[in-house]
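Our preliminary data section would be incomplete without showing what the modeling component actually yields. Below, a chain of 156 amino acids is followed by its predicted structure, encoded as tokens that our downstream tools consume directly.
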Amino acid sequence: MADPILWASLGISLSISLAAIGAGLGIGITGPGVAGATTERPEVFARSFIAVVLAEALAIYGLVVALLAVFKLPTIASSTDATAAANSAFRIFAAGLAMGGGALGAGFGIGTSGSAMASATAEKSELYSKVVIPVILSEALAIYSLIIALLLVLQA
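Predicted structure:
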């Protein structure tokens, strides 16, 4: 069996790296749509920018999970029970995978729906309350992942 610290470290790396990729993907897809909408109608910037902020929150979620997991590493390293250390490490690995994967999917959802939201809001600003719903629901996917990841890390 591999070293428990290795598995926990892999989980930490997955959490932050996949969440950052998801955030970058969301911002990268949404940004040009927001810029285009703002060029057409500058007054929609504040409304459209919410998608960029929500995409950035994905990286913060990954960072929170990774930091909490890092604080568990000394406990795993000093554990005399190899089975307990392995269980904790695998929980941290699963938490990182859940958070990173959830943020990656949410980033794609926020990016595509956020770009469409910006375009639709530029065309008809009265549609904003309807077209913002897919962006919020995409963010909810990451929040679900965050909850599961936190439960796994706190039980590790």
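The chain has one domain: 4-155. The radius of gyration is 19 Å. Preliminary results of this kind motivate Aim 1 of the renewal.
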